[in-house]
Design a protein that fits this description.
250 residues, alpha/beta, six-stranded mixed beta sheet, four-stranded mixed beta sheet, 11 helices, globular
């Protein structure tokens, strides 16, 4: 585990908090591993009935830690085993998953939302996926799930054009269920989790499987995206885009 992910159980609800506030929850491989373990261990015979993923005030997640990510990428990695394992874990998650979003949700901070069952966002939340602007392509199965959820044109606007969504706009396209003031988001997410956890668990599990269908198609798309993503990382477009990005940050 890592200090940057805090896992707490309260009765049948497990909260997984990304806790790297100084980097706006930019995700490291250790954080991915810790979240994967927290999700996986809540399955099977575990008494956990619902999972809640949240961040810190002002930041759900700023996406991947770019320093660590680029080091792995230049070493020939695709997305990194920790990231792929986390994405597979999300796709195969056995328990209902609630997400509570305040502040920024960049890249995977947005695409992981596509795997949850219920989501609450702050009115000032900002969802953005700058993949193509960096010479890359969408990940996390988003190229399959997002068009199903919001239609091709709106998904294209988000995933390819990189147009941000506010909390209200995310609700309008079906990315989140509920919008609340930032200081009430986690409370509202916990209310939803408690309502889910109070339902007959087998009925919830069967209904959820029927609604989501087999995760195999999503896992396959995650792998297909990862292969394309890895190829794009080696492209001149991506190299130029990242060079320009890091130059702006200096």
């Amino acid at each position: 585990m890592t200090k940057h992910v805090i896992v707490t159980d309260e009765g049948p609800i497990r909260t997984i908090r990304m806790n790297r506030a100084e980097k706006k929850n930019a995700l490291t491989f250790a954080m991915y591993d810790a979240m994967s373990e927290a999700i996986t261990s809540a399955g099977g015979s575990s008494p956990i009935r619902c999972l809640v993923i949240c961040g810190v005030p002002g930041a759900f997640s700023a996406g991947n830690d770019l320093g660590e990510f680029m080091k792995a990428a230049t070493g020939g990695a695709r997305l990194g085993n920790s990231i792929i394992n986390f994405l597979h874990t999300l796709a195969r998650c056995e328990r209902p998953l609630v997400m509570a979003v305040t502040g920024v949700a960049v890249g995977i901070g947005t695409t992981m939302m596509l795997h949850c069952d219920y989501a609450v966002a702050a009115s000032d939340a900002r969802f953005t996926t700058p993949f193509v602007a960096l010479g890359l392509i969408p990940e996390a199965g988003s190229s399959l799930i997002a068009p199903r959820l919001m239609g091709h044109r709106r998904a294209f606007e988000l995933l390819v054009m990189g147009k941000p969504l506010s909390g209200e706009e995310a609700k309008a396209v079906g990315l989140v269920n509920q919008v609340a003031p930032a200081d009430q988001v986690e409370g509202e997410a916990m209310k939803a989790a408690q309502a889910i956890a109070a339902l007959p668990p087998e009925g919830v599990a069967i209904s959820r499987r029927l609604m989501k269908g087999t995760p195999d198609d999503i896992v396959q798309r995650i792998d297909d995206e990862a292969a394309a993503f890895g190829a794009r990382l080696q492209s001149s477009e991506a190299r130029d885009a990242f060079a320009a990005f890091f130059a702006r940050k200096k």
